[in-house]
Amino acid sequence: MKINIHDIPETGLTLDFKDEGKNIEELAGRLDFSFISPVSARLDITSSEGMVNVTGNMKARLLEDCGRCLKKFQSDIDADFSVIYIPGGEKEAEKELKPGDLEMNYMEGHELDTTEILLAQLSLEVPIQPLCREDCMGLCPRCGADLNEGGCGCHEGAKTESRFAKLKDFKVK
User: Fold this and answer.
1) What is the DSSP letter of 130?
2) In a structure prediction context, what are the per-residue pLDDT tens digits for the chain, which is 173 residues long?
3) In this structure, what are the phi and psi dihedrals at residue 158, rounded to the nearest 5 degrees?
4) In terms of Cα–Cα distance, which of 140, 133, 134, 132 is closest to 159?
């Protein structure tokens, strides 16, 4: 949903909405997770002197792949956020940043896209390497067995073959 900043009343604007995730997936192109439940969000939007402040809460249930054992698992996102937008475009975004600029986002034109806001917040909330549980042991590097389900058949004393093992015989002339 697009919001024209000139249509925001002085008292502010509150939006409660759900997004099935299709709009977010289309905007992102490719995500490392899928949506189990719709993304529900509450946004409080205020505008003053050209600046737009968006505070809100976002909730979603995601299906992710564990970064260690590769199993699919569900995770819940429940995040509060606050974002400030100021007028400007690519020229403003390319200038040298000062410490206060890191909290600002630039908007082109007079519209805010709620889908872009949700995608940005999801990007901050979803871990780079999601884990199905904190103590996930992952896969055996030798045989690929899931170590969470018990030991594997590999000899514990055996070392895995190094990718650099061939270099030990390398001689410089």
Assistant:
1) -
2) 888 888 888 889 999 989 888 888 888 888 888 899 999 999 999 998 878 999 999 999 999 999 999 999 999 999 999 999 888 765 555 667 666 666 678 788 888 888 899 999 999 999 999 999 999 999 988 888 999 998 887 766 555 566 777 777 888 87
3) -75, 135
4) 140
Spatial CB neighbours of 137, under 8 Å, sequence gap ≥ 6: 68, 69, 147, 148
| Segments in the chain forming alpha helices (H) | 22-28, 90-93, 114-125
Q: Which amino acid is at 85?
A: Y
Instruction: Put residue 55 in one of left, alpha, beta given phi > 0 → left and psi -120 to 50 → alpha.
Output: beta
Determine whether 98 is exposed, middle or buried from the number of CB atoms within 10 Å of its CB (0-12, 13-18, 19+).
Answer: exposed
d(CA 104, CA 118): 16
Q: Answer whether 0.85 is exceeded by the pTM.
A: no
Q: Are 46 and 53 in contact (CB under 8 A)?
A: yes
Q: 59 and 40 in contact (C-beta within 8 Å)? A: yes
With H, G, I as helix, E, B as strand and everything else as coil, classify residue 165: helix
